Amino acid sequence: MKSRVIEIVNKTGLHTRPGNLFVKEAKQFESEIWVKKGEEQFNAKSLLKLMKVGVSRGDKIEIICEGPDEDKALDSLCELIASLEE
Amino acid sequence: MFGKFKGISASQGIAIGRAFILKHEKICISDEVISEINIGKEIERFYKGRERAEFQLQELRQKAEISLGKNNAEIFEGHIEILLDNSIEDDVKSLIENRRFSAEKAIKQVINENVTVMEDLDNPYMRERAADIKDIGQRLLYATANVELTSLADLNEKMVVFAADLTPSDTAQMDKSKILGFITETGGVTSHVAIMAQSMEIPAVVGTGRIVDQVKNSDMVILDASMGEIIINPTDEQITEYKDKMHLLELSLLELAKLKNLPAETIDGRRVELCANIGSDQEVDNALKHGAEGIGLYRTEFLFMDKPQMPTEEEQFRAYRKVAEEMTGKAVIIRTMDIGGDKDLSYLKIPFEQNPFLGWRAIRMCLDSPDILYVQLRAILRASHYGKIRIMYPMIISVSEIRALNEILNNVKQTLRDDGIPFDENIATGIMIETPASAIIAKQLIKEVDFFSIGTNDLTQYTLAVDRGNERIAKLYQPFHPAVLSLISQVIQASHEAGKWTGMCGELAGNEQAALLLAGMGLDEFSMTPSSIGKIKKIIRMSRYSDLTALSEKVLDLSNSEEVIAVLNDVLKKYR
């Protein structure tokens, strides 16, 4: 299992559009992937869950990956979050 | 139907044209328990509906990609993702199987549950995204019931669109060139329609309350977003007036854009500061776009309104910090909450009052329940570490109020020091001058604070004892009344004698006639709707301070409002 804490830097957070990019990316991987914000942990492959938790700028979330491609999944998801602009 | 309506200005501009009303047909949802043999049928209907909804969204995505660009089209990929979400499918199926709900009833309940969760979120931007879930839910519901949705695709000439609310799937179907402007009953400055209208650079007024049933298709409409005003079936004179206004707006925007980076300085070197009034952290971009040198009034009321509970310290801190950071070292004046009996906050239990404007509002409320202010001041102080913030208290009538407020402020500062949380130790504090009492004792008040900011709307209403919301006495509401002008001039002088400064954040600050006069009186800072900054700067830059001083001395001797306006108009003519 691999995990990393990352801060959301884009202006509007993970709402519909950036959130969808994130979920789409997560679905590329075979690994189980979760996002943890505060005490809440949820499946990173569900955009609805992601939006219900409300991830916004300045929030620190932990991305947790477990499976055959966990390293690659973690790297590319962190990279995606860092590169969001909107 | 004739008449004027008011709302929140969400995107600048003026539009004149005919009304197009977007109304969604109602579908009926059966409350009956379904029989066991129909369970499979209802689940099948849900899947069929979902397929239809997905197909519609795919079509919308393609349409949007052509008419609105790739970025806007991506929203629909998100919508499809949510539509097909496993948890929605599982919950709907479970309600049909276990509770024997019809497919529509199950969908409605599941969507409502999800929307409720999102509407409770802390961040206003995220909260507004609940509209996306509602939108998807509605599409799924209609597709399952096999009822068609009316759409903006029906527009075939340029029109002003009226709707209760506009969702991304509504706007995706429109041909941009057919829309003159938007008017919606609900929504705020961060709602989908606001963002959309700003990117299309067309006017929009939101949050009007009931209007859709007050207007008919093809009624003539004037939409003036600069004032947040809508006129239904205007007179010919009004149409001519607004056409002129529209024309001037177009011309002046081009011309004023050139002034953006130049200082607001008179020919003989008197420099004033031109700032913006904002009501939300989403308005900073617009303020900077118009060349604001600071935020002269950040109204924090919107953080407190339209929600089930008090905004948390964290939520407030994030909003204030965002504004401070985006203004990059330029001053931001945050006014502590100015709420009273004329606004209904479910969680505050404000009792009904006969005279809310003379009642339990703003700091009067805060001094009685200091915890509201405590949380707000803590959020403001924490944010002060990230930019240049100033604090401003509204509705002051006495020195003892300021002392009580500053004592609370000092306590909050001490708790932050104890917790090791950084903040600006030299944060400036000021007060609004909006009561005649505060203007009259300005000399005493200035000893307690760093600056004044004059709120002309309330100062006019209180000085003249004229309710500014009462149409029957609208004629008597005269900001150029000599009594009001004399108070303003005294306030500015009192601050200067103490080596301090005075700003203005009422509507007068963005008025061209008033600018001549106020600059002459020595006003140091003018704060206004961002779109007015250019025209005021132009006037300042074309003036001589010595002329304006002489003008203001002359005007202060005049006997009534009509004379004042006549003299100022006369001077203004030379500027055209």
Percent in strands of chain B = 5-15%
Count of β-strands of chain B: 16
Overall geometric form of chain A: globular
Largest interface, by Cβ-Cβ below 8 angstroms: which chains and how many residues each? A-B, 22 and 26 residues
Overall domain count of chain A: 1
Q: In the CATH hierarchy, what is the class of the largest domain in chain B?
A: Alpha Beta
Helix content of chain B: 40-55%
Query: What's the helix-strand series of chain A?
Result: EHEEHEH
**How would a textbook summarize the main sheet of chain A?**
4 strands, antiparallel
Mean pLDDT of chain B: 90
Explain this structure.
The complex is a heterodimer of chains A (86) and B (576). Chain A is of the alpha+beta class. Chain A has one domain: HPr-like (Histidine-containing Protein, Chain: A). Chain A has three helices and four strands. Chain A has helices at residues 16-27, 47-53, 70-83; strands spanning 2-7, 32-37, 40-43, 60-66. In chain A, strands 1-4-2-3 form a four-stranded antiparallel β-sheet, covered by helices on one side. In chain A, β2 (32-37) and β3 form a beta hairpin. Chain A starts with a strand and ends with a helix. The relative contact order of chain A is 0.33. The mean pLDDT of chain A is 89. With 576 residues, chain B is an alpha/beta fold. Chain B folds into three domains: 3-24 and 152-248, Phosphohistidine domain (Glucose Oxidase, domain 1), CATH 3.50.30; 36-145, Enzyme I, Chain A, domain 2; 266-573, Alpha-Beta Barrel (TIM Barrel). Chain B is built from 23 helices and 16 strands. In chain B, the strands form two sheets. An eight-stranded mixed β-sheet of chain B has the order 1-8-7-3-4-5-6-2. Chain B has an eight-stranded parallel β-barrel with strand order 9-10-11-12-13-14-15-16, surrounded by four helices. The two termini of chain B are 38 Å apart. The model of chain B has no long low-confidence stretch (mean pLDDT 90). The A-B interface holds A 12-13, 15-17, 19-21, 23-24, 46-49, 51-52, 54-58, 86 and B 71, 74-75, 77-79, 81-82, 85-88, 114, 117-118, 121-123, 125-127, 129, 132-133, 318, 322.
